[in-house]
Amino acid sequence: MNSVQRARLNKTKYFFKNRSGFLWQLSREIEMLKKRVTRKGYRFAVRLNGTSDLSWEKFKLLDGQSLQDLHPDVQFYDYTKILNRLESLPKNYHMTFSYSGANQDECIKAADRGFNVATVFHGSLPRKWLGMRVINGDDHDLRFQDPAGVVVGLVAKGKARKQMSSFVVQP
Known about the structure:
By secondary structure, this protein is of the alpha/beta class. The protein contains four helices and eight strands, in the order H-H-E-H-E-E-H-E-E-E-E-E.
């Protein structure tokens, strides 16, 4: 295990052993980084789920506020495969629904509710999928900047390029 993997494991353990402490520390780190990037003239954005699908909007700090409540000037964003997470999101939390290979009906429901849908494609991106225009999601990860009503197309990378599975859509 390399140092990055050890650090991630330690943070995960901290999250589960002392959720309140973890959230307060994360909030302080967000505040510190927000100040640093604001001084440089940038707007700060935070993606909390890199490899998980945790409902961060539901985790409350001791005062009953979520991280999004405490930092209304920060743009939070994530991907989710959980359809009911799309309900009652804070205004500063942008969500893109993700195709799993087994949730096409939920993708259609998410799109009908006005959410974009991220999908991994094999080889190249089609012009349309599920009747919606496909944009290149590999250009950047700032999903909150995407136009509404699109499929965020991602080209399969790494092992996914060689695997034939329902997760990777054949264009």
